[in-house]
Amino acid sequence: MIQSDVSVGISPRQSFDSWAKFVAELEVEGARRVWVIDSQLAMKDLYAGLVVAALNTTRIGLGTGVTNAVTRHPTITANAIAAIDEISHGRAILGLGAGDSALYGIGLKPQKVAEVAEAIAREVGKYGITLNVVCPGLIPGKAETSGSNSMWSSEQTEKFTPEVREKAAKAYPMRRLGTPEDVVPAILLLASDRASYITGQTLSVSGGYTMI
User: Fold this and answer.
1) What are phi and psi of 64, to 5 degrees?
2) d(Cα 4, Cα 32) in Å, to the nearest integer?
3) At what angle do helices 74-87 and 113-124 cross, to 10 degrees?
4) Where would I find the H helices in the chain?
5) Cis (ω within 30 of 0) for the bond into 66?
């Protein structure tokens, strides 16, 4: 059984009949979710693909992997994913990012994280929803307290020797690297009722690194 997610694009050469069979097979094999790539110059339309997938499956999660707020206005995206959610009986998942090939292919650059947050915040504010971003600096982790997909749980952590960390710390105005305890209060504040009137903002918790 495939106990994992699958990211895939629908080739212009692939028929939707073939796509329907492919997604149905993923579901049979136990895949949890399928994320459909949004790249209009390289793939077939992801929402058409998600409709076909919704009509040919019953369990698997169906997501945009990922769309962006430039080639598709947030209101159009909201309308489209709501339709997919209805057709799939609640299995739709919205993956929204900065954009990559969808933007480069038409001569545009991917959005910054702050721009993505602002685009979403503008649209969801009328529903009383706030959205903010916390940008931490380099926060060294430990294998025993990091998720299995974290770089701090991989061989890459060996590259961050004490000497490397000391050198990196000198680049920060506060002359030290951050800790989880430095970042958590900012997240808790923005997630609390005390920040109910704060939205669309990017808070740097980086020991002053953004001033460099």
Assistant:
1) -85, 125
2) 6
3) 70
4) 16-28, 46-55, 74-87, 101-104, 113-124, 162-169, 180-190
5) yes
Domain residue limits, the chain: 5-111, 133-211
| Displacement of CA 127 from its chain's centroid (Å) | 22
Q: Give pLDDT tens digits for 174-208.
A: 999 999 999 999 999 999 999 999 999 999 999 99
What pLDDT is recorded for position 156?
76
Instruction: Quote the percentage of the chain above a pLDDT of 90.
Output: 81
Separation CA 197–CA 8 (nearest Å): 39
For the chain, the average pLDDT equals: 93
- The average pLDDT across 157-163 equals 87
Task: Please give the model's pTM, rounded to 2 decimal places.
Answer: 0.75
Closest CA to 56 of 27, 96, 15: 27
Q: How far apart (Å, rounded) are the C-alpha atoms in residues 92 and 63?
A: 6
Q: What angle do CA 188, 199, 39 make, to 5 degrees?
A: 105
